Amino acid sequence: MATYFTEPSRTFSEFLLVPGYSSKECMVDNVSLKTPVVKFKKGEKPALEMNIPLVSAVMQAVSDDKMAVALAKEGGISFIFGSQTIENQAAMVARAKAYKAGFVMSDSNISPESTLQDILDLKARTGHSTAAVTTDGTAQGKLVGLVTSRDYRISRMERDMKVKEFMTPLDQLICAPEGTTLKEANNIIWDNKINQLPILDAEGRLQYLVFRKDYDSHKENTNELLDSQKRYVVGAGINTRDYKERVPALVEAGADILCIDSSEGYSEWQKMTLDWVRETYGDSVKIGAGNVVDAEGFRFLAECGADFVKIGIGGGSICITREQKGIGRGQASAVIEVAAARDEYFKETGIYIPICSDGGIVYDYHMTLALAMGADFIMLGRYFARFDESPTNRVNINGNYMKEYWGEGSARARNWQRYDMGGDAKLSFEEGVDSYVPYAGSLHDNVNLSLKKVKSTMCNCGVLSIPELQQKAKITVISTTSLVEGGAHDVLLKDSGNYKS
């Protein structure tokens, strides 16, 4: 006979936190969001921790090397998407690991034979006002000039004018040689009152740009997540098909942690993958698994050797698995049950396995609820897709700036490995959609705002750390009418611009 769950499948929106006693120590500046990423034994420290409880989803539209650097600067981890060739993914990991703080590889590049219209299109696509002009139009071509917004006037120039006619040529630029330190670069910028400094190799090829505006932001990154060699911590997604080829390439590229990217983690395919990683690398390679939505699935992956377990099926904003297949579970219910299973496993074995809540986050306060319910960290897709640092295009839709965002199960991504159940090597039907999300600006500003809300709520609960929140939180189920009562109601808002999550 089928097993029936007596409790409804609940989402985060059906719960609220009840305030606890707040001492005078409960101030936002005193709250620590440090959290474990991989399993550890009682009394020991985990081999990998994060300074904030946020990771970016293993998705084409979310996590590339640029996102990896941006999120590591804030203290989190990006899992670079695996639905690409092994060589391309390994190259992304290598670029993120090789990134030097303050030294930016140019992603707005153009050739001298291009036109003003090409410059305008490039600016609209990337949002950057500075473009490097190289002989071949690539990021590491031979530098011949720079174009900034001061080099052209749209109202006075023809759109077909060549870049070489209005760019600032190399002989008028101040540059520095490869090997220049960040301190030296910043001194050159300030002494010469310039906004950017190209770093060139001996042959004149562009290596990096150092920007004046990055100086202050670099000093602000007190939470940046670094490895033992002072490089940014980078994650990568893998599948259960080509792991014997993909994992070695990612390890060689420097990936700090891997994650099996699958819509269904309670499977023999995941056990085979984990077994191979353990047999090949022992515990030296850290790897998470998932996704699961109940205690049974968690126990299975824990016993298979997963370093962390990911929770969630069908809760993502672009995921239609529940509609297509009728399978999944409300994210709050899933987190609550898996967290209880994690705690029980810890009592039995003395091994703590972190859990990651993946999907179902609509508002910022849902992050706090997920943590209070037992999640050690949260994986986000739509949230990060909105920012400058995501790899998708920024477009104008009906007068509003949006970013493209599509699911791995969509016809656009066609990531059949994520939904693989051992059949043909193809995506039989869609389990995701292609969409837009409102453009939100920089990752730094938005993450800081979201985490200030999380910290503030934790202070309301009378706690100063995530483990303390999980132990002391008081959570209540709410009715639909109390949900209405909790928002602005019975008034006409003058400006709803600030009334958003």
What does this structure look like?
The chain has 501 residues and is of the alpha/beta class. It is 32% helix and 18% strand. Helix 1 links the parallel strand 5 and strand 6 (77-80). Helix 2 runs parallel beside helix 7 (243-253) and helix 9 (295-304) crosses helix 11 (331-349). The radius of gyration is 24 Å and the shape is globular. The chain starts with 14 loop residues before the first strand and ends in a 15-residue tail after the last helix. The mean pLDDT is 91.
Percentage of residues assigned to helices: 25-40%
- Uncertain regions spanning at least 5 consecutive residues: none
SS elements, strand count: 24
Report strand %: 15-25%
Query: Which class do the helix and strand fractions yield?
Result: alpha/beta
The rough form would be described as globular
Quick structural summary:
This protein has 501 residues and is of the alpha/beta class.
Question: Which key features would you list for this structure?
Answer:
alpha/beta; 4-stranded mixed beta sheet; 32% helix; 501 residues
Any chance you could write out the topology, listing elements then pairs?
Elements: E1 15-18, E2 35-36, E3 40-41, E4 49-50, E5 54-56, H1 65-74, E6 77-80, H2 86-98, E7 109-110, H3 116-126, E8 131-134, E9 143-147, H4 163-166, E10 168-169, E11 176-177, H5 182-192, E12 196-200, E13 206-211, H6 213-220, E14 235-238, H7 243-253, E15 257-260, H8 268-281, E16 287-292, H9 295-304, E17 309-311, H10 321-325, H11 331-349, E18 351-352, E19 355-358, H12 364-372, E20 377-380, H13 382-385, E21 394-397, E22 400-406, E23 434-438, H14 443-460, H15 466-472, E24 474-477, H16 480-486
Parallel strand pairs: 5-6, 5-20, 6-14, 7-8, 11-12, 14-15, 15-16, 16-17, 17-19, 19-20
Antiparallel strand pairs: 1-24, 2-4, 3-18, 8-9, 9-10, 12-13, 21-22, 22-23
Helix pairs in contact: 1-2, 2-7, 9-11, 12-14
